[in-house]
Design brief:
The protein has 15 helices and no strands. It is mainly alpha-helical.
């Protein structure tokens, strides 16, 4: 599929009611067609990996074209500078999370950027840092426990950030690390208990929610089977 074909396809799938619904959930792209993620994945599959086309689609600055970028850009070709250009323009959670789970976590810069972005002040750059941690914990099956232990200090440091999209990402990162295996589960629960003692509403929510899931019978049984 070429650039013009993609735009025609997106327009044909346009759904104004979906756009209204997305706004209620904080998906606030200035331009959007309201195309569902499953339909975007179908289009991306037809396109295949295409680094050059991805650059052109990004410049269109439409929700759907930018999400397609996360699905078709080649993680082996994307540069660190390009990742920085992308993340600086994230202004709602969906675009941030799609890039982290579809593209960023597959690049050679993933662990480095997760640490760097977690220290940044911008809401969606900081969210990207922790969303990237969550996605690495989810997708990088061969990673050692030591790869994730270094993220705990970032989680503790940012647990008092009251911004909704930050605290949810911090919580997501902590929970996903704790769901990898029993060793990381015990360490994540310990970190959560430490965070819970902080004089911060955000920290207490992050900790309580993480402890509830990570100590649940369902998670404990699943992790026990991995031993």
């Amino acid at each position: 599929m070429q650039y013009d074909d993609i735009l025609k396809k997106l327009k044909s799938l346009s759904n104004p009611k979906a756009i209204e619904g997305m706004a209620k959930y904080g998906i606030t792209a200035k331009r959007a067609y309201g195309v569902s993620i499953p339909n975007l994945r179908k289009i991306a599959k037809k396109i295949g990996k295409n680094h050059e086309l991805a650059q052109k689609l990004w410049k269109s600055d439409i929700r759907e074209t930018r999400i397609l970028v996360s699905m078709i850009d080649d993680p082996d070709k994307i540069t660190e500078e390009q990742m920085e250009r992308y993340v600086k323009e994230f202004n709602y959670w969906e675009i941030c999370d799609q890039f982290c789970m579809n593209l960023f976590d597959k690049t050679k810069f993933a662990y480095k950027k997760a640490i760097e972005w977690s220290k940044r002040k911008e809401e969606f750059v900081k969210r990207a840092g922790f969303a990237l941690v969550a996605c690495l914990a989810w997708h990088d099956k061969n990673a050692k426990d030591s790869n994730f232990l270094e993220f705990f200090s970032s989680i503790v440091r940012e647990a008092t950030d009251n911004r909704n999209y930050v605290k949810k990402a911090v919580n997501w990162a902590l929970r996903n690390i704790g769901k990898r295996n029993l060793n990381l589960n015990r360490k994540a629960v310990g970190i959560a208990k430490e965070i819970k003692k902080m004089d911060s509403k955000a920290a207490r929510w992050i900790a309580s929610d993480a402890i509830r899931e990570l100590t649940s019978e369902k998670i404990q049984k699943r992790l026990a089977k991995k031993v």
